[in-house]
Amino acid sequence: MNRAPFITFEGIEGAGKTTLALWLAERLKEARIPHLFTYEPGGSEIGYALRPLLLNAPLEPATELFLFLADRAQHVARTIRPALEQGTWVLCDRYTDSTLAYQGYARGLDLHWLRILNQLATDGLEPDLTVLIDAPVEVALRRATQRNRFEAQDVAFHEAVRQGYLQESKRAPQRFLVLDGTQPLSVLQEQLITELQARWGLWQAGRRDR
Ligand code: T5A
After folding, report:
1. Cβ(10) to ligand 1 under 6 A?
2. Considering the domain boundaries, does residue 33 fall inside one?
3. Which of 173, 188, 198, 204 is most enclosed, with most CB atoms within 10 A?
4. Are the beta carbons of 169 and 178 closer than 8 angstroms?
5. For ligand 1, atom 24, which residue shows the shortest CA distance?
6. Ligand 1 center to residue 15 CA distance, Å?
């Protein structure tokens, strides 16, 4: 591989994605490894401007789909791909699997079309590793704070998202690392580092100076 690793973090709201991704960003910083923490929706200027609308306005499924995709197309072309090509690790909080899980499995849009549209928006850029933090809906939503219209959906919606992610992880087992998000954060951190060590030879598992 002649570009830096691209790692995405996925899961239902409150699963712990942002917490784990930011923790890894700190570890990379300490190790002086060039890296970028970014997120969707909102990683591009367009997405940042659209974020309040996306998270709060009632939207048709196809409308929200195209807004998420517009953000992603811009984000990949202007931020993610250039960073990777310069040797910067990219940690992205949500990416294409969010579209499959939310707009596909939960909202019911056609998965076949969503895969094609994701391909178009990303120009085929796939993550090298996707960390899926899996947690029961009631545990995750208790951690999240009802900040947006997605979190306010009913339990069945979030359960469909969760099951969608698990389905996707089975389609691409080499890409996914599925972590049990009910474990203490320290355990998740250790599991993530073990995976990074196996894939990219970073750090020694069990070292105390991380
Ligand atoms: N969306 C997004 C789509 O529908 N389609 C798409 O294509 C895309 C890209 C984004 C929304 O947009 C939708 C999906 C989402 O609904 P958002 O505001 O960006 O919404 O929200 P989230 O990404 O879901 O962020 P959250 O903050 O809600 O969830 P996280 O990041 O999973 O949770 P985090 O890390 O903030 O942790 C929540 C709390 O739990 C604690 C943390 O300290 C924090 O207080 N915590 C733990 N506690 C105990 N044990 C652990 N292991 C813990 N890990 C974290």
Report:
1. no
2. yes
3. 188
4. yes
5. 13
6. 6
Judge whether 157 and 164 are in contact, CB under 8 Å: no
Could you read off the pLDDT of 29-69 as tens digits, one per residue? Answer: 999 999 999 999 999 999 999 999 888 888 999 999 999 99
Q: Alpha carbon of 4 to those of 19, 23, 121, 129, 177: distances in Å?
A: 22, 19, 20, 12, 18
Quote the tokens at residue 150. 């997605």
Of 10, 13, 20, 48, best ligand 1 pocket probe by most atoms within 8 Å of the beta carbon: 13
Asked if the structure places residue 54 within a domain, the reply is: no
Q: Does 24 contact ligand 1 (Cβ within 6 A)?
A: no
CA 145 to ligand 1: nearest atom: 28
- Output the pLDDT for position 146: 67
Would the CB of 47 count as within 6 Å of ligand 1? no
AA letter at 85: E
Residues 63-118: tens digit of each pLDDT: 999 999 999 999 999 999 999 999 999 999 999 999 999 999 999 999 999 999 99
- For ligand 1, atom 28, name the residue with the nearest CA: 13
- Structurally, the chain folds into a number of domains equal to 1
Query: How is 98-142 classified by DSSP, letter by letter?
Result: HIIIIIIIIT---HHHHHHHHHHHHTT---SEEEEEE--HHHHHH
Q: Dmax of the chain from CA atoms?
A: 49
